[in-house]
Specification:
Elements: H1 2-5, E1 17-20, E2 33-37, E3 45-51, H2 55-61, H3 65-68, E4 75-81, E5 94-99, E6 105-109, H4 119-128, H5 135-149, H6 152-199
Parallel strand pairs: 3-4, 4-5
Antiparallel strand pairs: 1-2, 2-3, 5-6
Length: 200
């Protein structure tokens, strides 16, 4: 999940929301991790990461029904320990993230492998690896996730109230700073006038 939220400049997809093991329907796919990015740019969409710790788990994954058609994620990656999966074993359109003994994640295949490189190569990889995601399942996942958070409108009102109070306090502080500056200037003028009067 940390990798999903990592900025492009740091080698990640820059998702705004990322969750682990959330159902995408009453049956079927439960992504190990999925993130969503909405920045108004060409790489907006969803990113799925499936974690594999054994060869058997990786080989069994391709038999899942949602791997042959549909499924979540505009971009999809396997994450595995170094050496467990070779890039040439990946299903079409899948990327690969490897994790070393120190827990560092490295993009070996997929669009993320081009972050930090040439813009044209990155754009080409983003389009080459793009999947048509199952929007119904992704909407189900996001709706259930938001439902768990509670009353979305109540939370929205509270957030608006916090921002409004923050703005009010900022304006008040700025006003007090201006008042303080005026008092300092007046104090300097009075002090200067007193010094001139005493020197006569």
């Amino acid at each position: 999940m940390k990798w999903l939220k990592r900025a492009n400049s740091a080698g990640g997809p820059g998702c705004h929301v990322a969750v682990s093991e959330c159902r995408s329907g009453w049956t079927g796919e439960v992504p190990d991790a999925i993130g969503f990015r909405a920045a108004g740019s060409y790489d907006d969409g969803s990113v799925v990461v499936e974690c594999k710790t054994s060869r058997a788990d990786f080989l069994a994954d391709r038999k899942k029904a949602h791997r042959t058609t549909g499924g979540c994620g505009n971009w999809r990656y396997f994450m595995a320990p170094e050496g467990l999966i070779s890039p040439d074993e990946l299903p079409p359109g899948w990327g690969l993230l490897t994790v070393n003994s120190r827990g560092h994640v490295k993009a070996v295949a997929g669009p993320a492998a081009h972050y930090g490189g040439r813009y044209d190569a990155r754009l080409e990889a983003i389009e080459a690896f793009r999947h048509v995601a199952d929007r119904d399942r992704e909407q189900f996942l996001l709706t259930k996730l938001l439902h768990r958070v509670g009353d979305a409108e109540e939370m929205n009102r509270k957030i608006k109230a916090v921002y409004a109070e923050q703005t009010r306090l900022i304006n008040r502080v700025n006003s007090q700073i201006r008042e303080l500056d005026e008092l300092r200037n007046e104090n300097w003028r009075l002090k200067h006038a007193l010094e001139q009067a005493q020197s006569r």
